[in-house]
């Protein structure tokens, strides 16, 4: 059994810490807020983020980073994208031994377009961890924390690291596959949040299942279009971290992105919603990053563009839907379909 530190005691960090604990590991759950750590250790609950979930007595919360990572074999970063750089900067001051470094964060940084593993590599010397592992897939904390069956993928260009991650997390309720396409997995995990905002908007406007199915399907087409243009494997987008995560985030009542879209369509302001949510809604910042990236690379991403305009330019959601429906006519298939077709023909 191993010692593992989970950095970030929000809903997902807590759920992942519970999985590691179930597997017999000594888990340290780190939060930057001393009072938060005290509350968790006193009540054995993390009610700020997960309602009515009892944590094991020996799953201990820490606010001292040095103590939390002492002699751990693995560190799992489960923070909002915005917090990745500052926490890695703190880690740089105190991490002195080699670890497997895993992250469960889904976002892209606006302006720089950096993915989470790239931000980690910019902030933390690689000799401490080698290659980063990404843990991603259709997985809501609310279900994982009550042991509902869940599948994810552990992705790294270093297969030994992804297998180590698979061994740490895998159990009869939490199935972990391995993958090597870090670029595709990180892009799929981040970009699906934008489409989930759109699904929430569509439901909030009172549109039906036809509209949501169209959003998810055409959303996947534009995610794959950007992803393959950047060099990702097109097959990744039809896997767990692509279509799988897109489905769960666009349809689940647990989704923070879907809920945000739903409230936006009902007329609440973005500021009010984010205040009320109390948890990170990654699709908002990522919509900005993806819109900028699509503009720079001249990639057609009409749904992402529409969501960006609703979020940042106060565009009317109904008008955005009308614009999407009346775009000039075109074939359904594009270069991504041709790449997939070629892949299957070559088999
Ligand atoms: N919640 C889920 O079901 C789920 C599932 C899969 C992936 N994710 C991803 O995991 C990441 C974290 O999501 P979450 O839902 O756990 O978020 P959350 O909002 O529930 O919790 C985030 C945690 O990070 C802490 N934090 C914020 N800023 C910080 C900083 N500067 N320094 C240190 N700590 C800081 C907060 O205090 C909080 O404890 C996101 O990228 C999300 O997309 C979430
Ligand atoms: O609740 P959301 O919308 O932040 O999505 C959480 C996860 O990414 C779902 O896999």
> Can you tell me the CATH topology of the largest domain?
Rossmann fold
Q: Enumerate the distinct ligands.
A: nicotinamide-adenine-dinucleotide, SN-glycerol-3-phosphate
User: What is the CA–CA distance across the termini?
Assistant: 41 Å
Number of beta-strand segments: 8
| Arithmetic mean of pLDDT | 96
SSE ordering: EHEHEHEHEHEHEHEHHHHHHHHH
Number of domains: 2
CATH architecture of the largest domain: 3-Layer(aba) Sandwich
Class of the largest domain, according to the CATH hierarchy? Alpha Beta
Radius of gyration: 20 Å
Question: Reading side by side through the largest sheet, how are the strands ordered?
Answer: 3-2-1-4-5-6-7-8
Query: Low-confidence segments, ≥5 residues, pLDDT <50?
Result: none
Strand count, sense and closure of the main sheet?
A: 8 strands, mixed
Residues in β-strands, percent: 5-15%
The structural class is alpha/beta
CATH superfamily of the largest domain: NAD(P)-binding Rossmann-like Domain
The rough form would be described as globular
Helix coverage percent: 40-55%
Please give the count of helices.
Answer: 16
Binding site for sn-glycerol 3-phosphate: 106, 137, 139, 192, 245, 255-257
Organism: Pelagirhabdus alkalitolerans
Domain Glycerol-3-phosphate dehydrogenase NAD-dependent C-terminal: 181-321
GO biological process, one term: glycerophospholipid metabolic process
């Amino acid at each position: 059994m191993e010692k593992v530190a989970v950095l970030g005691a929000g809903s997902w960090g807590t759920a992942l810490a519970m999985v590691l604990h179930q597997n017999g590991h000594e888990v340290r759950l780190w939060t930057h807020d001393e009072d938060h750590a005290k509350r968790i250790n006193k009540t054995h609950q993390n009610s700020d983020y997960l309602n009515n979930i009892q944590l094991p007595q020996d799953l201990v919360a820490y606010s001292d980073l040095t103590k939390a990572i002492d002699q751990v074999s693995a560190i799992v970063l489960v923070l909002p994208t915005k917090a990745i750089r500052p926490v890695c900067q703190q880690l740089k001051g105190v991490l002195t031994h080699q670890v497997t470094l895993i992250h469960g964060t889904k976002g892209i940084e606006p302006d720089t377009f950096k993915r989470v593993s790239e931000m980690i590599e910019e902030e933390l010397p690689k000799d401490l961890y080698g290659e980063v592992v990404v843990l991603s897939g259709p997985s809501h904390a609310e279900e994982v924390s009550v042991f509902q069956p869940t599948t994810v993928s552990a992705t790294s260009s270093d297969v030994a690291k992804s297998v180590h991650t698979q061994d740490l997390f895998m159990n009869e309720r939490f199935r972990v596959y391995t993958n090597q396409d870090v670029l595709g997995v990180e892009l799929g995990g981040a970009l699906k949040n934008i489409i989930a905002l759109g699904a929430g908007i569509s439901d909030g406007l009172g549109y039906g299942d036809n509209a949501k199915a169209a959003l998810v399907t055409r959303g996947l087409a534009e995610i794959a279009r950007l992803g393959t243009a950047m060099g990702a494997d097109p097959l990744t987008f039809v896997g767990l971290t692509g279509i799988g995560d897109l489905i769960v985030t666009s349809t689940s009542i647990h989704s923070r992105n879907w809920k945000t879209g739903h409230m936006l369509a009902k007329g609440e302001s973005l500021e009010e919603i984010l205040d009320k949510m109390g948890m990170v809604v990654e699709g908002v910042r990522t919509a900005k990053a993806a819109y900028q990236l699509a503009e720079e690379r001249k990639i057609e991403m009409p749904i992402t563009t529409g969501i960006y305009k609703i979020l940042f330019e106060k565009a009317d959601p109904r008008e955005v839907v009308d614009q999407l429906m009346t775009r000039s006519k075109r074939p359904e298939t594009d270069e991504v379909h041709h790449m997939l077709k070629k892949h299957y023909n070559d088999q």
